[in-house]
Design goal:
The structure holds two protein chains of two kinds. Chain A has no helices and eleven strands. By secondary structure, chain A is an all-beta fold. In chain A, strands 2, 4, 5, 6, 9, 10 and 11 form a seven-stranded mixed β-sheet that branches. In chain A, strands 1-3-8-7 form a four-stranded antiparallel β-sheet, with no helix packed on it. Chain B is mainly β. Helix content of chain B is 0%, strand content 45%. The chains are: A mainly beta, B mainly beta.
Chain lengths: 114, 116
């Protein structure tokens, strides 16, 4: 248990579906992140949120839509995905500015697009 | 962030020390060396970090060369549960502000296999 919880752990969706991934952190951190890990590839940073504000979008297609309603919750809304979007999606949180510096990751959501 | 180079894979016998090298010859003065590991299909786990002094915690030791161009992560008594991909990451301290914050740039890492 890392203090970062992701749901669901596994998700299968069709290309026309709309689904959302949820991430919740219980660590009091002020920054949250979405990463994508495709098969045989390194983790890729997708989005960065700091104090609920999006501070980075690494050229992610608009079919991925993040939402950060508060500093403890992060969502990734998915719509009209492609089979190549199948991957492990990881959420992380960290404290920036003061206190602990390392990032804590959730267990990830294994997404399969059919 | 500075680029790192790690061996693709390494083997280690259970109970022996695992020494994982990392080259970061272009590291700059304000960049730290971080190590994370990822056990199969789980999220990465922080191990240790350092600037220039050697560091030790309950999981591992980090040895950084005097010129800071390379480092070694040491797992003193490897167990089967240490089998994982180990990532060496170089980045500015999050206190540096700007857009780096706490983001991490992962490479391919080293696949460490601990065998009985």
């Amino acid at each position: 248990e890392t203090g970062v919880t992701q749901t669901p752990r596994h998700l299968v969706m069709g290309m026309t579906n709309k689904k959302s991934l949820k991430c919740e952190q219980h660590l009091g951190h002020n920054a949250m992140y979405w990463y994508k890990q495709s098969a045989k590839k390194p983790l890729e940073l997708m989005f960065v949120y700091n104090f609920k504000e999006q501070t980075e979008n690494n050229s992610v297609p608009s079919r991925f839509s993040p939402e950060c309603p508060n500093s403890s919750h992060l969502f990734l809304h998915l719509h009209t995905l492609q089979p190549e979007d199948s991957a492990l999606y990881l959420c992380a949180s960290s404290q920036v500015g003061t206190g602990t510096t390392e990032a804590f990751f959730g267990q990830g959501t294994r997404l399969t697009v059919v | 962030d500075a680029k790192t180079t790690q061996p693709t894979s390494m083997d280690c016998a259970e109970g022996r020390a695992a020494n994982l090298p990392c080259n970061h010859s272009t590291i700059s003065g304000n960049e730290y060396v971080y190590w994370y590991r990822q056990i199969h299909s789980q999220g990465p786990q922080y191990i240790i970090h350092g600037l220039k002094n050697n560091e030790t915690n309950e999981m591992a030791s980090l040895i950084i060369t005097e010129d800071r161009k390379s480092s070694t992560l040491i797992l003193p008594h490897a167990t089967l549960r240490d089998t994982a991909v180990y990532y060496c990451i170089v980045r500015p301290h999050p206190y540096a502000g700007g857009t780096s914050y706490g983001k991490l740039t992962f490479g391919q890492g080293t696949i460490l296999t601990v065998h009985p």
